[in-house]
């Protein structure tokens, strides 16, 4: 019943948007055409149009069709019934999550959906607790950035599905549980970062991540692919730190930078790791941007705050949240979305001063 209510109200909202761009007395598409366009039943279309006629946005001519009324303000807001979504993320204060939540909220706000946030602090038990609480509260749907865990622990996801609570994943999926997924192309992001560094004259390029899981593996593969494409075989030490569950980034960065054959550039899993490398380099008297190229990932506010502004891969966090919310909206509106549905967004490199090229050491102008 609730899904049926959402369906007709969303159609009503979409029709209003369409009417706004139509001249008064213009004829609306036929009802069979609208059924096909919105992929809903004739009853849903009839109900939405009937209300718009009653509110003065449309008028009907017997045997002729439905037309746009004159003089009615079509931008009047439609109030939707209250509903709630749960958003479960590792930590709202860190990395990409504020932008992601904003993307979700902007979609939810348009449809009068409340957003309730739960922070897992990267703990699996907390994630399970939040899912359980949301199920008991009658939540309308869940958007989840799963904790970094690859053991196949899926009990609470299965319970949510059994309870009729739809789930959309962001950033990464969960082994053994299929659900729509919105993510950034991590392979491509690190690939374009490494390609840029190579094109800037760097050859001894390292890759550094703190955790070893699906995302860091994809980025490492992107880095290695770019290196291989250019006939560069990096020393294993330049990326071997990344095979551990968790590393001491500061220690690993120092070990790399004190080597006689130290890297001339480092690709970092995220901007926070880049900041740590920046501090280590500064302590060792290595200048970022001239002595050492440095590229981060996520394009957070930190990039503009460092003394040498950080080149970084833009994760498109807002768009990930926005796409996830639109998927969840479609599911709650009764549209058939495959559990294998995947939306992949292409990241972009934002170039600043931290990776200017090896030629800058000698004062040569960049091409």
TrEMBL record:
InterPro entries cross-referenced by the UniProt entry: LacI/GalR-like_sensor, Peripla_BP_I, Tscrpt_reg_HTH_GntR, WH-like_DNA-bd_sf, WH_DNA-bd_sf
Gene3D superfamilies: 3.40.50.2300, Winged helix-like DNA-binding domain superfamily/Winged helix DNA-binding domain
Alphabetic keyword roster: DNA-binding, Transcription, Transcription regulation
UniProt xrefs under SMART domains: HTH_GNTR (SM00345)
Domain HTH gntR-type: 5-71
Entry's transmembrane regions: none
Pfam families, per the entry: GntR, Peripla_BP_3
Keyword Manganese found: no
Molecular functions (GO terms): DNA-binding transcription factor activity; transcription cis-regulatory region binding
Keyword match Transcription: yes
Entry protein name: LacI family transcriptional regulator
Source organism (scientific name): Hungatella effluvii
């Amino acid at each position: 019943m609730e899904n049926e209510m959402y369906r007709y109200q969303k159609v009503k909202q979409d029709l209003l948007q369409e009417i706004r761009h139509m001249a008064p007395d213009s004829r609306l598409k036929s009802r069979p055409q609208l059924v096909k366009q919105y992929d809903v039943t004739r009853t849903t279309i009839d109900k939405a149009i009937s209300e718009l006629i009653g509110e003065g946005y449309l008028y009907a001519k017997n045997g002729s069709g439905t037309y746009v009324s004159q003089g009615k303000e079509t931008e009047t807001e439609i109030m939707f019934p209250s509903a709630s979504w749960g958003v479960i993320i590792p930590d709202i204060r860190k990395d990409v999550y504020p932008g992601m939540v904003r993307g979700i909220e902007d979609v939810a706000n348009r449809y009068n959906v409340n957003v309730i946030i739960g922070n897992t602090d990267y703990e699996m038990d907390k994630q399970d607790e939040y899912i359980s609480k949301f199920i008991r509260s009658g939540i309308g749907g869940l958007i989840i950035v799963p904790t970094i865990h690859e053991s196949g622990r899926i009990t609470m996801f299965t319970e949510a599905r059994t309870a009729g609570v739809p789930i959309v994943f962001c950033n990464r999926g969960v082994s053994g549980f299929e659900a729509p997924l919105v993510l950034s192309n991590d392979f491509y992001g690190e690939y374009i970062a490494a390609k840029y560094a190579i094109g800037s004259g760097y050859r001894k390029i390292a890759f550094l991540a703190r955790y070893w899981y699906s995302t860091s593996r994809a980025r490492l593969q992107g880095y290695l692919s770019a290196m291989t494409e250019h006939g560069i075989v990096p020393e294993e030490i330049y990326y071997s730190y990344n095979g551990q569950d968790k590393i001491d980034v500061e220690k690993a960065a120092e070990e790399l930078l004190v080597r006689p054959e130290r890297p001339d550039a480092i690709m970092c899993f995220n901007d926070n790791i880049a900041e740590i490398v920046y501090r280590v380099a500064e302590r060792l008297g290595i200048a970022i941007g001239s002595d050492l190229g440095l590229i981060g990932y996520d394009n957070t506010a930190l990039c503009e705050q460092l003394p040498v502004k950080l080149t970084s891969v833009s994760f498109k966090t807002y768009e990930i949240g926005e796409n996830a919310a639109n998927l969840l909206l479609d599911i709650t509106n009764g549209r058939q979305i495959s559990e294998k549905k995947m939306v992949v967004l292409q990241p972009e490199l934002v170039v600043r001063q931290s990776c200017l090229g090896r030629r800058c050491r000698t004062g040569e102008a960049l091409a």
